[in-house]
Amino acid sequence: MREPTIFELSSNGRTGVIFPEADVPLAELPEKMLRRDLPLPEISEIDVVRHFTHLSHLNYSIDENIYPLGSCTMKYNPRINEETARMPGFIFSHPMQAIETVQGNLVLMYQLQEWLKAISGFHAITLQPAAGAHGEFTGVLIIRAYHRDRNDLKRTKILIPDSAHGTNPASSSMIGMEVLTVPSDARGNVDLAALKKSCDETTAGLMLTNPNTLGLFDENIQQVIDIVHQAGGLVYGDGANLNALMGIIRPADMGIDLMHFNLHKTFSTPHGGGGPGSGPVGVSEALVDFLPEPVVGVIEEAEEDLPPLYGFIKPAKTIGRMKSFQGHFGVLVRAFTYIMMHGAAGLRNASEMAVLNANYLLARLRNTYKVPYDRICMHEFVAEGRWPDAEGIHALDIAKRLIDYNLHPPTNYFPLIVPEALMIEPTETESKQSLDAFVDIMIKIAGEAHSSPELLKNAPHHAPVKRLDEVKAARDLTLCCGRTE
Amino acid sequence: MFTPHTETEVAEMLQVIGLSRLEDLFKLVPESCRYPKLDLPQGLTEMETRLELQFLSESNETAHDQACFLGAGAYNHYSPAAVDAIIRRGEFLTAYTPYQPEISQGTLQAIFEYQSLIALLTGMEVCNASHYDGATAIAEAAVMAYHTFRGKRSKIVISPALHPQYRETIKTYLQGYAGLSIVGDESDVDLHQHPSEMKSLIDDDTSLVIVQYPDFFGRVFELKEIIEATHAVGALIAVSVNPLSLGLLSPPGEMGADIVTGEGQSLGLPLSFGGPYLGIFATKKEYIHKVAGRLVGETVDKDGKRAYVLTLTAREQHIRRERATSNICTNQGLMALASTVYLSLLGRSGLKQVASLSYHKAHFAFDRISRISGYEVWSTAPFFNEFVIKCPKPVEDINFHLMDHGIIGGYDLGKTYPALEGHMLLACTEMTTRQEIDGLVNILTEVTHA
Hints:
The structure holds two protein chains of two kinds.
Chain A: H1 45-56, H2 79-85, H3 88-91, H4 103-120, E1 124-126, H5 132-149, E2 157-161, H6 167-173, E3 178-182, H7 192-198, E4 203-208, H8 221-230, E5 234-239, E6 258-261, E7 281-283, E8 295-300, E9 309-313, H9 329-365, E10 381-384, H10 395-404, E11 411-412, E12 421-424, H11 432-451, H12 453-457, H13 470-476
Parallel strand pairs in A: 2-3, 2-4, 4-5, 5-6
Antiparallel strand pairs in A: 1-7, 6-7, 8-9, 10-12, 11-12
Chain B: H1 7-17, H2 46-58, E1 67-68, H3 81-87, H4 90-93, H5 105-122, E2 126-127, H6 134-148, E3 155-158, H7 164-173, E4 181-183, E5 206-213, H8 224-232, E6 236-241, H9 252-255, E7 259-263, E8 279-283, E9 296-300, E10 306-310, H10 317-320, H11 333-370, E11 376-377, E12 386-390, H12 395-404, E13 407-408, E14 411-412, E15 423-427, H13 434-449
Parallel strand pairs in B: 1-13, 3-4, 3-5, 5-6, 6-7
Antiparallel strand pairs in B: 2-8, 7-8, 9-10, 11-12, 12-15, 14-15
Helix pairs in contact in B: 3-11, 5-11, 6-7, 11-13
């Protein structure tokens, strides 16, 4: 049965909620400014709840089973996070309140800045960016501002490895930077010779994902960073893959100048079907003054009986404001909760188990699926979803067949440098049993690909819907329903 | 706790991998900085963590137990219990972006319904799946307008009555666009001006005009004249709205706006100290290929069954990379769901009722305060749920006094508008009670004698 739309459920005269009558005299309304009609759906509360409950049943989620989407770090989202983020003192605090009345929030933000500094080795943190891509945008603005501040105006090029996330080049060009792509070498590292050739006095920086999107720790990481620094550029770290590194190495210690964190990946805040995320950015000492405003700091030092007063600080040469207010506070509370529960040992354990799990899957799958860059991986790896003797089978078919076994597919067709890519990231929260079950099905599907390919090509057979007509969606472009005017 | 393996299992897995120790997994990590000591406190149990967080939460003084007259872009509205109950469902909460449509129809249909409801509310033809907040949504409108004219129009005209933080965000977003000028919000501009007075700034080099409705000072101005003037030179006009006000007020789409953006927080989202909120972005169908962010479209599956899927993805960063005009990826999916549930629950009558209650309470408060000796009305223009009062004492002093009486006072306009030193911006919602207004009036009266 298909679920009706919310508009199809409407009956004239119903409502899901009523409000008290006005306890003040009614004022005159500005007749000319009033809208004539607003035909929103009219539904009782139970039918609204049922509608969205029905819709929820059509979703796959981490709560249901393994979600091995490479690059997305779909780890378990602890329920305590949801409780703490909804504590009344947090959820009812207004972003413009006097700082004296919201010291609890400011202490939390300050402490989270300190903790992210400890985990990454950076000198200062902004919690403002709303998501990873927003953090990248912030980072490239900081790189630009840093060079301009030194009156080095010719640095207009950003180098980006061909394995990078699409947000990297998009973030760079949003600021008017020219993007130069750097190829990978045969072992999946940044190609050093090509990097050297691309670096010159116009290089603003390199955007580096390490471990990269192949899940590999760059074997020449120190040289890569040195080459860029020697050319006068900065190295930006894409923190999407930080889940492999907590307590293993601090990105700043590698020589990375600035990096964003994805709190919704590494620090367990829920993805929510596409957000909200949070993308704080950490920077080295030379870049502190360029951070977006506001940063949380101590406004008045502690005195004998009084704790310090925390407040908002505007960095001296700030790139400006990235959004309204001070970041996705509700997401910050969740990440804070997660770090508080883990401590240093817990975070290192999380990264170790994430890497162990990925290598275990790699070890168990490499004889069935070709792994083009086959060496010890970090928290994820990339296999090919094709076989020379199974003609016409694509990564997409494998992905869709996994759905029939009630498993979420890996990321497919990314990174672009691997044909028919299947990018697999199990995360540390999966048990051995869960990993084994995934492997068993992956091997079974490889068998089906050879013995009964139609099973894959027509998959999924057991999902709420079959494969969709994406061409029709783009051609007809029906983006709304319910308009009755 | 969150990592399930036993020691035996770890050993078994290492054996399958062909390694003897966990450390062998990290040999490529430069040895000199491998295994740093992280300066973090010892990990705590869930029970202890909850108490720590409770302590921080309880050390705030908030709208939970105080009367709140603070607005300025974030409002203390009531959110029915069912809204949070739905967004806490693990099936929505712990799902990723719906890239696998066959097992994401719940999220996809919800976004489709969100797009439909917001288009209806704003009076526009299409709406995207969300931006981060009201500020970034209007900044993306500026980027879109720039690209619509292929960078050949170098001027953007901004109303000084657009939220100060939105204006700052637009300037941050556009700082890399050489030759682009942003005019209209200089500090000497008369803040009493009607939006139509911005006409003198608009010419054929203008790509976009931006106004807010109701504006930052709460005023509601007829926009027809400025919209016509903008269109006369072929430029676009974007209107940043408080979507809740559109339960009562005529939507900008009906007046001919090209883009309507807004802060969706007022549609059922908690204040939460500034986020996560919801960036609304709606426009005309003719601009759909220029829009940033995700779009959900209706289609059918192989059996002809109605279904939903992310569409026109070739505009987005993961396909277009450096040729994409926006880098947005993760957006505000769960917050869009919350506003969808909110609008579904309130429906035709509920949204109008909430908007009307907010309107009447604000007008009552305005009427009372304006009659206190020493307080002056700043504007006689129609307003929605927010208004400006000139105070007899520094706003900060008054607010500290209110704080002592359990009242969160209004926004100190002097902080961002030097010309409005001593002016306070006050907001009411359906949550504001007559008793709270009486209390506010009493304290404001008292302050003048203090």
